[in-house]
Design a protein that fits this description.
There is one protein chain. By secondary structure, the chain is mainly α. It is built from twelve helices and no strands. Helix 3 packs across helix 5, helix 5 packs parallel to helix 7 and helix 6 runs antiparallel to helix 7. It is elongated and about 55 Å long.
């Protein structure tokens, strides 16, 4: 079951349309119109076709627009995520801030954080996780970024959540000590996050919730 859908499709953003061929624009317009009727097997087909129809550089944006047009419930998103490829799962994660106001979709974020797919990990740590992920899981996600080499610059609201976090500082210090004892370099990102945990540092300016482009990223 889906939320009531609008009668017209979501318009394409100005920064995407010029980059699509006429055929791709026509396909996406049709996909958005059909998605506005709610989540169906056709929606899944459109998500799967996005890269072939719009080209890989624009597929993520196309998928997110289709998801927004479909107004999926958390149950719909779970089904799409479970059945989707890694690329389709990433689109679901990117779309969460605009589609789910509460924490109902956190199991999808938690699943992505358990994987070793660095692109899924990056997508999982967007604005939705910044708002809803527990402190315990968020800290371990930051450590996983450091383990796997995912740049922490992609973590939404990193400074705000790390500020004054003594437990995160302890975990980072322990990780740095382990690396040093093993004769391995301490990542620059670890030093950066550790500095953010300083309670004496000036608190960061909050970013507007749900800001950014179609991916719903925050600065």
């Amino acid at each position: 079951m889906t939320h009531p859908a609008p009668s017209t499709a979501t318009p394409l953003p100005d920064d995407l349309r010029p980059h699509l061929t006429p055929a791709a624009r026509a396909w996406l317009d049709q996909a958005l119109t059909e998605a506005a009727q709610g989540v169906t097997s056709t929606t899944e087909l459109h998500l799967a076709e996005a890269a072939r129809r719009c080209g890989s550089p624009h597929a993520d944006t196309a998928r997110i627009l289709i998801l927004q047009a479909a107004h999926p419930t958390p149950t719909d998103l779970t089904r799409l995520y479970d059945r989707g490829t890694a690329d389709e799962r990433r689109a679901v994660l990117h779309a969460l801030p605009r589609l789910v106001p509460g924490p109902e979709a956190l199991p999808l974020v938690e699943d992505a954080l358990r994987t070793n797919d660095t692109r899924l990990l990056t997508a999982a740590l967007g604005p939705y996780a910044a708002r809803h992920l527990s402190a315990h899981l968020w800290r371990h996600a930051i450590l996983k970024c450091l383990f796997t080499g995912v740049p922490v610059t992609g973590v939404a609201q990193l400074a705000a959540r790390a500020h004054g976090d003594a437990e995160l500082a302890r975990m980072l210090a322990d990780f740095a000590a382990e690396r040093t004892a093993a004769g391995r370099p301490v990542p620059d990102d670890l030093r950066h996050v550790l500095a953010l945990t300083d309670p004496e540092a000036a608190p960061p300016h909050p970013s507007p919730a749900g800001g950014g482009g179609p991916h719903g990223k925050e600065s």
